[in-house]
Structure formats: C-alpha cells, structure tokens
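ERR on first pass: missing label on line 2. Operator R.T. fixed the label and resubmitted. Corrected input:
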Amino acid sequence: MKKNRRLVTGLSCMLVVGMLAACSAPAEQAKPSTNTAGTSNTTAPANSPATAATQPEKKAVDKTITLAVEAEPVSLDPQNVTDGNSITVQRSMYEGLLTFTDNMQPVPVLATEYQLNANATEITFTLREGVTFHDGSPFNAEVVKANLDFVLDEKNGMARRSFFSFIKEVVVKDPTHVTIIANAPNSTMISYLAHPAASMKSLEVLKKKKADPTFNLDRNPVGTGPYQFVEWKENQHVKVTPFANYWNKEQAAKAESIVYKPVVEASTRINMLKAGETDIITKLPTLNAKEIAEDKNFNVYKAPSLNVYYVGMNLKLKKYQDKKVRQAMNYAVNKDELIGGVLDGYGTVADSAIAPNTYGYSQQKVYEYNPDQAKKMLEEAGLKDGFEATLWTRNSSEFIAIAENVAMQLGKVGIKAKVQAYESGTLFNMLDHEKGTDLWIGRWSPGTGEVDYGIRPNFHTKSFAPDNNNSGFYSNTQVDKLLDEAIMTANKDEAMKKYAEVQKIIYDDAPWVFLHVPDLIVAKTISVNGVMVLPSDTVIVNTAEKQ
Amino acid sequence: MQTMKNQSPSPFRTFLKKFRKQRVALWSLFVVVGIVFVGLFAPLLVPYDPHRPVADQYKEKGMDASQLTREQVSVTVWMSDGSKANDSAGSEFTLTSEDGQIAAARKTDSVAFVYASGEGTTSILVSSGEIVSRLKVVVSGQDNGLPSLSQLVATAPKQSLQKGESVQTGVSAILTDGTELAEMTDILAFAKQFEAAEASAPGKNDGFASSTDGFTNSEEASAESRSLYFQSLTPTVVEVSQDGTITAVGDGEGTIMVSVDGISTLIPVAVNQPFNKAIPVRIEPGSLVMNLMNAYKHQPPSSLHWFGTDHQNRDIFSRVLWGTRETLLIGFVSVSVGAVIGTILGLIAGYWGRWIDGLITRCTDVLLAFPGILLAIAVIALLGPGITNIIFAVSVFTIPIFIRIVRGSTLALKEMTYVEAARSIGVRDSVIIRRHIFPGTISVVMVYLTMRIGTAILIGASLSFLGLGGDITAPEWGAMLSAAKDNSRNLFHPTFFPGIAIVITVLCFNLMGDGLRDALDPKLKD
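pass 2 clean. output:
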C-alpha cells in the first residue's frame, strides 16, 4: 500500500515536471543569448580588455547578413546544381552573361548587348570590359567558351549538361565578342543563357581542374560577383565577403559578409529569426507567415512563384485514357478549398499548365469545382462507381497535406485514391522508370522562367520518362508540332501565339489535375534592406545591407 | 499469508488477492479494459467519420451547415440615367481582395466567389473599368467593427452643358454599414479618420528590393488617394477642379472620375449635345458585408468537436478513438506473436542446452545488439510499409527478450527435484516441458507481456510517425502527431490529444505490468 502511494506521487510529479519542461521549451531558446550577454556585462569590469574586445567585434558581427536556407547547398559550382537552394547560395558569388529581373525578363550583366539572328540559330554577345574574377584573372570571350565547352563535355559529368545541350558550338570572334550557335533554331536561348546555370567561372579554376582531376570545383567557387568565397563548413555555413575589385561600383557589396546557414526544419528557421540568429529565412510555412507578418520587427515578402502543383496521371493506364475522366477529375477537385485549407490562402488557382509569372503564359478557363458535373462525366465514361487509384507524393508535410486533401476530394466523386508518401529521390526514380505509376502530386517550375521550359519537358512526346519529366506519357501530335514550330520562330509574338495555343490544348486535354500556384514567402528582420526575391525561388542578397 | 490452515490456497486466488491490493495496477487494468472496449467498438462510438472533413458531414448529421467558407458575389450596376444595367453589363467586373490571407476573391465567366482563407476583416474591391466599389468581408466573426466606404454616388448634371458653363457636383457615399454620407466634407472627414491607423499598419513586401529600381518598394498610401479626388478623363471636353466644379471646355461627351480611398465613380457630362447613352456609374454589391467562416481546418476544441479538428478539418476525437484499434492491434498481436515464438525457443534452448542453446543464444545476442526501433526500421525498409509489416517488425525484436527470460527460468526449473523425478521415471521431454517447466515460466512471461505491449505501442507509433506505417493519412496516433508536428508552435490540440492518448495507454499497460509482477512474485509478502 505504502509503496503504491509513493508510486502515485512519484508518477504525478514526473508528469507535472514533464509537462512544464515541454511547455517552456520554446521560450528557453531565446534565453541563453540574452542571459550570457547580461552576465558578461555585469560581471566584467567596465574597462577590462574583454569588454573592449567584444565591443568592436559585436559591431562587425552586426553587419553580417545571415540567411537560413532550407538545405545545405549541393555544390558551389553553378553548372553542377539543379536545385534552387544551391542557386540562392551561389548568387552572391557568380554572374552570367545575362540575368533575370524580378519578372523573369533576361537583362545583360557581363554582356553589354546581344543579338539573335533572324532564324534563331545564333546569338552573339558583346562582352563587358574590365571585369575580373575573384582570383584576379580577366573575363573575356575565351572564358565564356571555356565554361560552356566544359559543361558540354560529357567527361566532366556536370549536372547541367543536358540543360545546355541546345548548344552546338561556341565561337570566339575577338576578346569581347562571342557567338553561341545552336543545334536547331531555338528562340528561347536567351532565357537559357540568363539562367544562373550559365554563370561564369574563372578560367584559372577550369585549368586547375584539367591539370588535376582531383581538384574539387564544387568547393572552390571563383566568379565575378560582388562577394567572394571564404569558407564552407559542412552543415554549418557558407560564408562570403565583399570582393574589392567588383566591376559594378553601383551594385557593390554593402554588408560585412554574408553567411548562409542550412536549417532543414522550418520551425527551427522561425525560431532562429525570432531569436535574432538569422536575418532572412526562406520557405516560411504558411501558417506562421501571418504571425511573422504581424510582428513589427519582421517583414514578410509574398509573391506568386513559378511553381505549378498538379496531379499527374499515367495515361498508359486505361482508366485515364478517356478525356472525360481526366476532366471529371479536374472538376472534382475544389482548388479554392485546397488553397484555403492547406495553403492558408497563400496561393492562386492554376489556370494554365504554367504559372502566371512565366513568360508566355496564357490564361485558360479554370475547371470550376463541380462534383455533379464530375460524376456525370465519370458516368458517361463508363466509370459510374469510380475507381481505385494510388496517389504518390513526396514525404514533406506540405506535399502530404496536399495529397490528403486531393484524395479526400476525389473520394467524394467515388475515386478512391490511396496516398503513399516517398522520399523525393525515390519518387522521381519510381516515376522515371514507371514502377507502377498511377497518380502523383507533382510540382514543376521552369527555371528559365519562360513557357517552353514550362511545357516541353512535361508534355512533349520526346520528353517521355525517363529522359524528361513527361512521366504520365501524354502525347498529342498537335502539341508536339506547335512546340517544335514555336521554338524555331525567332519572332516573339508569333512564337507566343503558338505557345498560347499549346496551353489551350493542354488545359482542355487535362493530362494533369491542375491545382495551384503557391506564393513565395520570405521573411527578414526589419534592419536588413535590399533583399530581392525572384519568382524562380531565388533569394538575392547581393545589394542587401544591414542597419 | 493468512490462509486456511488445512487447505493450500489456489495459486490463482492468491494472485487475485495480491493483485487486488495493487490499487494503481487495478485502476490501470480498468483503463486498459476501457481502451480495449473503445478499440473494439470504435466504429460505433465515433461521432464523425474520421476519414473525412467534418464540414462534409454536418449535413448528414442534420446539423446546421451555415459555416460558409465561400459566398457568391452578385452585383447590380446602376447606369447614369438611374436605371439598372442589363445582365451582360453586370457580369463584366473584377474582384480584388485587400488581404488574400483573410479572404480571396475569384471570378470566372459566370460566377464570382469570395473564399475565406484566414480570420479577420478585409474588404473586396469590385471594379468595372473606372468604377470601383467595396464590400466588407468578415471571417469567423472577427469583425473590427469599423465601417468603410463602399460606394460613391455623384449627382451629374442632367442637362447637357454649354461651352464655358460651370456646375457644382454633389458627391455622397454609402458606407459598408449602410449609412449614407451626404456631404463631401463628411466623406473627407471619414476617409481621414482611418488614415493614422492604416499608416501604422505594416505595408506589403516592405524592405524587399526589386531589380528594376533597386530600392525598396514599400506601399505608400498617398495623401492623394485618401482625399476626394476629381479627374477629368476627357480634358478636351470638360475640366474639373478639386472642389467638384465642372467646367465645359469643348464639344462632345466627357466623363469625370471621382475617387476616394480606393473606390471611384464616374460622372458623364455632355457639352453642346444631348446624352447619347447612359454609362454605368455605380456597382452595388449584393451585400455590403459578407460573413464567412474559416471552417477549413484546425477548429479549436468545442462542444461540437471535443478535441477540435485537424489540418484537414477531421474530427480529432473520432480519429483518436479510431486510432485505438490499430494501436491495440499492433500492441497485442505483435507481442503475442513475439511471446509465443520467444517462449518456445527459450524453452528449447533452456531445456536441451548444448549446441542448440548456443545457437539460439547467439542469435538472441545479435538481435539484442540492435536498438529496437532500428531493427524495426530495417525490417520495414526490407518489407515495405504497412501494418502487417509493422507487426512483424515489432515481433522480431520482441522475440529475443522472451527467449532470454524464458531460457533463464527454464535453466532454473530444470534443476528442480520434481523435474528430475519426472525424468527418472521416463516421462517424455515434451511432456516435462509442457507440464512441469512451462507453467513455472508463465508468471514471468505474463509480466513481460504486459510490459512489452507498452513498448510495442510506442514503437508502432514511432514507425508511423516516421511515415513507415503504410497509410500516412490513416487515423493512427503516430501519423496524427507527425502531421501536426509542424504546427505545434501555434496549435495545441492537434498534437496534444493523440500524444496524451499514447501516454495514457502506454502508462496503463506499464503500471498494470508492475502490479502483475508484484502480485506474481512469491517472495513479496503483503
């Protein structure tokens, strides 16, 4: 008896203590920094060397802009990465011939002007003079050729090789003029060359790599950007400091240094921002965005992205071969409820296969939520009782929530979709090799910000998986024809007309359930200014400064 | 022991007597029985279908489904001659929401809808060409109580003007609460009233640069937009001063735009000629204030939903009850399987000894060297996710523990005189094991069984928390925690209730196990 009573008391104590500990955990995060600051101030004598040393150091630290990014960069070689996160980290160090403005228009940077020939097969750049790399070597036409040749060489195994596969030859005319010749007419070349993947590396590092195959380009970034590389500490940070000989004095670096910290957990990023450990955070979860936006100490940036979320379907399967079934599925999903419910309103309904900010976008008539219509169409297609399906998704909570919502909505019209989550690498592999593809939640963002890259990889017959992203095996000769014609048309307006036609056909054919275009949400402390966010999900802090 | 002198008590009765004195264990037993009952009858007990959003179920339950998340917008367009416009003109308008995180508006060819997406008050601007009206949207009853300007009404000169002639226009405004401001000064005073409040509110995209200008693009609420502003759209025909005096300067038809605080109207003016046709001047929204509910998700606990709703608006109480089934299934089945196999192998190893004992013990050692959860993850990785595989995985690491304890007590029991006696008269080994050794191990097996159920439930929940449980959308406690963990900063109920369910279940099984051990221990006297 006595023993038991003690047991009860002990247990209840443990429970209470446990609960208290759990409750106070978030508050404690901020505490240590203030505590240590407080004690060091009070205990140390006013004129001790310790405080004297910390004072100027603190000032220096203040001018450092810290960015919490969602993952460790894959590489610091612009031609060897395909993820937006790595690009964000690289942007302060590298520049290309062209770059994108915040509405994805290509504008010259290291080139001063460019000229596309009449049949869209050649583009000639006039290069800027007086540009030097961080290692002191000059920038000229030879560098451009060496860079593009390097990425095109299969031996080098660069991740972006296929991205540049449209290039046939790079011809150096003189030190300030270079011509890029394409394999076939390609009016979208300009956008490709404005992509961060076309950033220029120093000729010296390429030479080093050729001389010594063990030389690691991923870890030795040398570009022409306003900041130069200092260090990359695994899983801790990448640090860059201003480059003194930067060519563009107007856009010169204003911060003492920039530190990129990989922080995988979104909630940790928020805590870091709140505790002042970081100045800028990317990929803010929608539920927290509002809370942060209401806080006077932070600014939240919100703008439509280039991402389109969709439900892909394997058109090889009999059940999806009838267009009516595919359209019925589009009618069955209430996109507004998805945006309101899962995205907390941070998104818009996808009214084309590409996002509104994409160059060449043409708005289509949305499949408005209409379950009765959907049921009717399913009945007409001979699937009155619906069917069973498997819905694949990535295993991040955002993707799972979207898949769950879509599955429940499809369930209302009798389509019983079972959600299965996989790690993204596994999922891509399964889609590429058609290991039981049925339905899947997909996301596509054209890195070049123009329509061709938004549509061709997903809907052209030649883009069938595993070569490209057409994992649903959608094939429409008319779409293929229009796409092929459009890319050969140097006249922008005519090309765009064709792309608009393609978008109309695709939206009507409904090879996807078109879901939504999410907003980009980036938050920063009020003391940092001049942060730029591209719709392509890149955060640029080149001209940012901290007060 | 105070038992009857001449009759040795039944061991079971002694056990019962001892167990009944374990107050905590007894209570735990009751709770466990309750949990098992809930698990068995979950389909009958749940108030809502745990797989579907509750919003879809209100109607089936005969509840008032007035929690509208969207509402259709209808408008009436008034023409300058005082008539209503026909339908075709009335459909050409666009909707803009001032805060998309509170309510979003979208218009398609035929219908326009306003959707709730957050909580609070915002306004929707309805515009058609130069005419803009406003309607207020209140989501989830979070009314800020402030009316705002909805529509402007300008009195236009009825007759055509002569060149050089001047007229004074009158402007009145309608507020979202329905009151009318008849004088221009009233409108101005009203517009100014909120200037200070809005200026301090954070602007959009503050401090973020745009590449085109290189500077921050903070939104300015310019003084101009705040005050009543007159603008002639056809300066060759009419001119207008900022006090509302219209002066005709040329022949033809002209229009004047009057705007304040984002809304605007038009005044048609004809000079030296009659009016050709009436133009639309005002858009009147079907309702000035729209009340929506943000009933998409995360409803807090209420009498309707005891534990609130989750991120897909499913009833957490129903999901927790439903989750009991899977949890208990994993707990009972996996541990029973593990215990049966473990006991058999333990008996064999302990009784026969020699090489077979060596083999089994070594295998046990190998399995015990893995942390339980790691072993389970490895099994799932091999077999793929799913409840059967979870059960299998949990059984696999339950087996070696039972082998160990059963082998231990078998070794001890084997040396007992009654076993020796049985052997000496030639009883078969299988009979000795069954009749003389196995009953001796039962008490220790029973204790371990109850204790292990708690662990098995934890491992099962951990596996589904890690997304290895097969159906991640299933009402399963671990999966529920996993889905809710990202929002645990802001929201209490989606993580708390599944979490507490796990705690209570595991705690009760463990306490019961403790009580059993004490009751079954012959050395422990009361």
